[in-house]
Predict the 3D structure of the following.
Amino acid sequence: MASIRNFKTFLAVARHGSFAAAGKEIGLTAAAVGLQVRALEEELDQVLFDRGPRSVVLNTAGRKAVPQIEDLLARFEALAGSDSHDELSGRVVMGALVSALMGAFADALWTIKRQHPALKVQLFGGLSADFVVQVERGELDAAIVTQPPRALASSLVWTPLYHEPMVLIVPRRPHFDLPDKPLDVLREAPFIRFDRHTWTGSLVKDVLDECGVGAREELELNSVEAIIEIVRQGFGVSIVPQLANVRWEQDEGLRVVRLRGVTVERCVGMVERTRHSRMAFTAAIKEYFADRPVRDRQP
């Protein structure tokens, strides 16, 4: 009968797309990984991967097997830890927007980590659209992303966690003439824009549309934290989500301006597969935000 070890090896190969990369994660040679996968395929009497010269790809049977094997492992881990006082333990692989780590998600993560010291969380930074693909492939257990602009695959679920208002930020010591009125600032000041091809970038467009102005674009970046620093140094203005853990009111380099009549907010949430082996952890994340009053979820 297939062992728990073989199941874990199968999922590692599914995440990485190669026996060698999976072996580095679990401490086996590529040959040993290949033998375990073949043993699992023989036990199940079906091929799970299409083999290539340098990579392996899940076939239809393999994709169907992923959620079932994840469910088996989740049940096994729950049984193995049934006598433990710390029900959350082991390794979680997660993606998170860097700006989310400057926002309310950071508080949730550190709170859960303090409550469950045996829990090991490996975080990767990146963009929302890329994270969704990685979660669907099983490369990540879950990811913190901006609300998807379109429907996700049926194998995925997105849970909203908190909202961040989109605000105008301006430097306190600009290297240009800064108008007094916010709409004039948007029209005349050099504008540092968040990458328009990203999900957060589309929210910036929505703000400009609500304001009915065209910005004088100077730079386009895909990093909220880099944009904040450029504005802080006096080289432009921008529209960004108001992050929870940035001390805006105490910042000596920039100030926040709420744009009258603008209703656009960035909704930050978590995407995960409908079934996976780390659902106890993702449930704890959702519970953390569910227990907070709505007013406390906003900066």
